[in-house]
Amino acid sequence: MKFMIVGKGNAATEAGELPPQELVDAMHAYNEALAKAGVLLAAEGLLPSSKGAQIAYSGGRASVIDGPFAESKELIAGFWLIQVKSREEAIEWALRVPVPPGHDGIGLDVWRVFDASDVPDETLPEEERERERALRVRLRGDDPAA
Q1: What's the distance, CA 72 to chain centroid?
Q2: How far is CA 38 from CA 31, 84, 85, in A?
Q3: Strand (E) positions, the chain?
Q4: Dihedral, CA of residue 140, residue 93, residue 45 and residue 65, to nearest 10
């Protein structure tokens, strides 16, 4: 099962402040532990929302809203994508994330990632299953035809 651990933003991350070196070191150690355990698929920090955009839809049309965005408590500062055996294991890993200074209240979300393996085989046509499988092989980089 894949899970995304999402780190929430705050005023400091929105201001583009870099974390203290001891937190950076702790995050590197945490990421190394995830990698050593063979569960880490990706881990990234995000720039402030002033560097981003949102896409809004109205009446079937899309419009772009440039950042920054007002509610920093609704924003994310980074994420980890992990592959583990259970929700409980994902939560165990999330509980090990180093806590940044000044992060009181909710700091992380743990979300299960939905993918093609979550769709029962009998509801997905064979052609769609094969197309999904081929895409995943290409993304892993082990497709000899790529």
Answers
A1: 17
A2: 11, 9, 12
A3: 2-8, 40-45, 53-58, 61-66, 76-83, 108-112
A4: 90
Nearest CA-CA partner of 31 in 110, 96, 84, 75 = 96
What is the C-alpha separation between 46 and 57, in angstroms, rounded? 24
pTM recorded for the entire structure: 0.79
The candidate with the shortest Cα–Cα distance to 54, out of 71, 67, 73, 70, is 67
Report whether 68 contacts 49 (CB < 8 A): yes
pLDDT, tens only, 86-117: 999 999 999 999 987 666 666 899 999 987 67
CB 3 within 8 A of CB 82: yes
